[in-house]
User: Fold Alpha/beta hydrolase from Paludibaculum fermentans.
Amino acid sequence: MPTFTTPDGTSIYYKDWGQGQPLVFSHGWPLSADAWEDQMIFLADRGYRCIAHDRRGHGRSGQTWDGNNMDTYADDLAALVTALDLRDAVHIGHSTGGGEVARYIGRHGTSRVAKAVLIGAVPPLMLKTASNPGGLPLSAFDEIRAGVLSDRSQFFRELSMPFYGFNRPGAQVSQGLRDSFWLQGMLAGHKAALDCIRAFSETDFTADLKRFDVPTLVLHGDDDQIVPIGASALLSSKIIRNATLKIYEGAPHGMCSTLKARVNDELLAFLSQGVPAAS
Assistant:
């Protein structure tokens, strides 16, 4: 398996498909790079180099006891960029991965970044605070922690329903997709899965978003039951300079899977903007 080693000695797995301008995908919690395969196959077939890594503690990467926080996630992403010498890259992050992309730009800048995409992403801040009254209360994340600690296997099975909107009337439930979610979640280390809840819920990305100076696309479903749009995309799209916000009516958090054809076409159109037509 292709891996690289971070400065603190952690082995990070990644997949590297296709040739062309690099697209770097950062996945959500508690998943792995496998969550991006629908996008990676589509875009690699259309002339892009698609790279996705398993965040530390997730998937096939090393399960460290420490370092399960956004600063380290961002530094691991920077180490991947350096290891593969990626330039003019487009960074695409879903959910927690959107926070990872934001913190990467906040800590490492955009000298190697051409564009960014945030899909169902957690920035600017999920937690309800005095300055962020639209966020979710701490008790909501305490319940997630309790579920992971009590019986994370059953918790992940149940979480797959609202994640993909399968709990909505008339939804066509894919048991295979639910099983894939569960499998990816169970590949994550228990400590990493637990620590990441604090990372995605209590990290304030406002300052990071203000450092974005590249074209940015923000996609979000208005029926996202995991990362409500009011405390995320509606705010982050205003903080990021000249961001383009596109709201998917009725779409769930896991829309990269349930609406993959639409998301794929959206990404391809955004990637093609500003590229001269072939003569």
Summary: The radius of gyration is 17 Å.
